[in-house]
Model the fold of this input.
Amino acid sequence: MKDIIDIVGAQNIPNQDHQNIVQQTIHQFAESLGNAIDAKDSCTSSHSEDVAVITQEICLQMGLCQEDCTALHIAGHLHDIGKIGIPDSILKKKGSLTDAEYEVIKQHPVTGAGIVGPVEFFSGDNGIARMILHHHERYDGRGYPDGLKGEQIPLGARIIAVADTISAMMQDRPYRDAIPYDRVVKEIENCSGSQFDPAVVSAFLSISDKIETYISETTSAYDDSSSFPKP
Ligand SMILES: [Fe+2]
Ligand SMILES: [Fe+2]
Done:
């Protein structure tokens, strides 16, 4: 962090802007890394960006402060960074996975938390590293890697879990076509209290029209152009 501030300082930028530039740079690095993991698998292009945007919208709806919403947005970009450690033969496999292959997939939250481990800014009980580590936990305790339950799961991870599922269901996968948005909304609602935190589901349901508009606009942007749409 100090090095970035020193570089910014060397550019004769007023002191009050330093912090903003550092935050922007952290966000842009997170977005770059998210793009890197999305580029690894054409089926999931824009997934990290979509999760970052949907996560932030739910966060705002839940009334969390701007600082928390920004952290959640960054965590959304980075949530699947651990997939960089999964061999393509497993990640892009068209058929069903063996138990051993599924165990490899299940390692990606641990790998991801390890990748961002050296970033001190991401540490702490409610830090970005723990959001990445626990984004596949389930509210009923049947998720992974640690089987955490309810509020044992960091709030950020509970929000990312909902955003992640929305984005994943809306994309074509080797083993199924994209699911229509009205069915996605129903599925999220049905899993309230089992897979997902009811408070997060409730916040999503109250902004589901806004999320649908965002997804339809970005999907058409990807169809029309190779440039990355911005939230
Ligand atoms: Fe972003
Ligand atoms: Fe994941």
User: Anything to note?
Assistant: The radius of gyration is 18 Å.
